[in-house]
Amino acid sequence: MNQLIPITQLALPIPAPISDAAWQRSQVYSTSDARWNFYLNQLATELLAEYLQADFPQIQIWQETNIWQFVSGSVLQLNHKRIVLLPSRAIDNSELVIAQEWLDLPAWAGDYFIAVQIDPDTETLHCWGYLTHQMMKSKARYDPLDRTYQLDAHHLIADVSGLWAIQSLNPTEVTQTAIAPLASVNPVQAANLLHRLATVPNPRLEIPFALWGALVSDRQWRQQLARLRQGETAPVTDLNPVANQLGGWLQNVFAPGWQAVEDFLGTDAEFALRQTATAPLLVRRVKAFELDNKVLLLLISIETEADNRLAIQVQLRPTDRVSTLPPELTLSLLSLDDEVVRSVVTRDRDNAIGLPRFRSNSGTGFKIQVRSGNTTICESFLV
Hints:
The protein contains eleven helices and 19 strands. It is an alpha+beta fold. The strands form four sheets. A six-stranded mixed β-sheet has the order 1-7-6-4-3-2. It has a five-stranded mixed β-sheet with strand order 10-19-18-15-16.
């Protein structure tokens, strides 16, 4: 049997107000596992960040609390290194269990891993060892059933203070082994996956790891999944809170999610813009999103005119020629102050709707909004 590692390392008291606040905030989550994940990780992050602030004022917290619905672990960023905290209530500290995401996702992978024990009864946090990514990959056992790495505690470096010394004396230490890149998820595939994973008991084990990893590596998809699993009917209120720069579109610079119409729809590209294309197009792009359990396409086309204004066309349609749009769906052009400038509403059996062609001067902003019932989706643009 593995020997317990004596907890003689860094120990921090857990102030009652911080503990109470973390527990109160955790109650918004629908499962006990998610509540405990939030509570333990919030305490570990807050207390250790505060403890290290004096010696390392540059330390930063990776603010992604939505991941605690799926996995346990939190991140401190120091000297371009990611320190993954792995908190647990377990009294038996003979083994450390790490979710695969922290080792095999390029966007998440840590450089160092710290085992943290939180004891709510004694109101104490203990750090009882650490290891690098390289060491973890070479020494830990992988369990494909729950997609975790399991490490016997005797492999951990018990002197946690050594990690802080390394960050002071050798912050560029090589810590990670090579991590295989993951393919990205296209918008339609992501929308379908989000719908599928919204209600399953354990979404991270529902689909292949490569697919799951690509989905949760994207901040937008990850946040949307977290909201859906909380029961929110409106997955997003703004698909892109930072305005899409249409001037950049003219230079072939596009925000994530926007694809060439020809690449997305293939032979259906001309059909997709048939109702709005009245002049040769300079740039046209399409973005997919999910609304009312249907994947819809927002198509934008722009062309420059003689006076340097942009002529803009907007259309909404399903992903194929046969499907129809939800009835009483509204497509609107808004000012940046959310004033409705123009709008159009679907009728029964409409397979596309479009806004009248409009022109905009350089420096002007606007929004395109799609609304169905209580669900509203919005994209912001700057000319």
